[in-house]
Amino acid sequence: MNNTTMSATKKHTTEKQRLKKMSKAQVQLAVIKKKRCDAKALAIVEQLLESHVNPDWLLQNLGFISKSHMEDAIEERAIVKLCGYVLCSNQLTVVIRQQFHISMRRNKVYDVSRRKNFCSSSCYGAAQFLLEQMLESPLWLREKEDTTPVFHILPLNSTPGQCGDEINVE
What we know:
Layout lengths: L2 H19 L2 H25 L6 H7 L5 H13 L20 E4 L4 E4 L9 H13 L31 E3 L3
Antiparallel strand pairs: 1-2, 2-3
Helix pairs in contact: 2-4
């Protein structure tokens, strides 16, 4: 097992031990809290599916969703032919049918299967920058975390374009 798997297993074991020590009332409160957090996250994701999202609102609400929620919003926006970057209101007009892109200039191969959800390489890069900042921890356990990240948005005109996810062919 690698370190990530071991740490995830250790966290899961710790959570199980914590649940065994909890009273029935505490478990009920935890379930209620989980449902509230999930409902709030769903409302945020539904708002992210709109064509115009306010950047200030986005920054205020990113802490209430996880990385998987944002990935779901990206895919749902692409299904309705909107750019996957939540701050972009462009329609998806060009559909990328290939899975890989070979850059002769950079001598690299890119997987462009996720890039097809975006109207441009700069939107893809900005969305990846946002995803890298997002937390993956369960929503209802976040108040116990020591640090809440300060989220940043890259302006689209300063975002370096990305062709896709780089593939190591060595």
